[in-house]
Design a protein that fits this description.
six-stranded mixed sheet; alpha+beta; about 180 residues
């Protein structure tokens, strides 16, 4: 669902009341994310736990679900935003900040049944244009994952294809492994 609002700025958007699910602002358009369903929630939870299980103890990176990232004149809420440890915004006390005014190093989106693939891919390409190293668009219906790399290079991965992971994270996953989490 996309709503065109007459000449609203990013700062005006950020002053609007929060919506559930979250709304995003990109290229002057506000759109509300769809409500997550079973497959989406399962994949999101497993990925956050798996990434944090190997990256957080070693202080390499941190995966955060549904985090608003404000950068490049946009406010995007990836299903999972992964930040390298040294790039996690912190208060002077060392405590994590509430407002992340930067791009994620790795952005992961999980396509919901009635969601526009073009819109979600556009968000990942936008992230890539602004510094995100890796983007994943997980497509449960097709058991495939589109990977977005710097320079807007996109690859379709399926089956036993090994997924790209941020450097220094000791994690190896295939597309099959990710989708096997849907079978209980």
């Amino acid at each position: 669902m996309t709503t065109l609002v007459k000449s609203i700025t990013l700062e005006e958007f950020l002053q609007l009341p929060e919506t559930k699910p979250a709304s995003e602002y990109i290229e002057g358009k506000i759109s509300q994310k769809p409500m997550p369903q079973g497959e989406h929630s399962r994949l999101q939870g497993k990925l956050v736990a798996t990434i944090n299980g190997v990256a957080e103890p070693q202080k390499i990176a941190l995966a955060l679900p549904e985090l608003r990232c404000i950068f490049g004149g946009a406010a995007i809420v990836p299903d999972i935003a992964v930040f390298r440890w040294e790039r996690i915004p912190r208060e002077p006390s060392g405590r994590i900040t509430n407002r992340f005014e930067t791009y994620p190093d790795w952005a992961i989106e999980i396509l919901s049944p009635d969601q526009s693939m073009a819109k979600v891919l556009r968000n990942l390409l936008y992230c890539s244009q602004h510094g995100t190293e890796i983007g994943w668009l997980i497509i449960p219906e097709e058991a495939s994952i589109l990977s977005v790399f710097p320079s807007q290079r996109v690859e379709m991965l399926t089956g036993t294809d090994k997924l790209p992971i941020l450097n220094n994270i000791d994690l190896s996953l295939t597309v099959e492994q990710v989708f096997s989490w849907l079978t209980l």
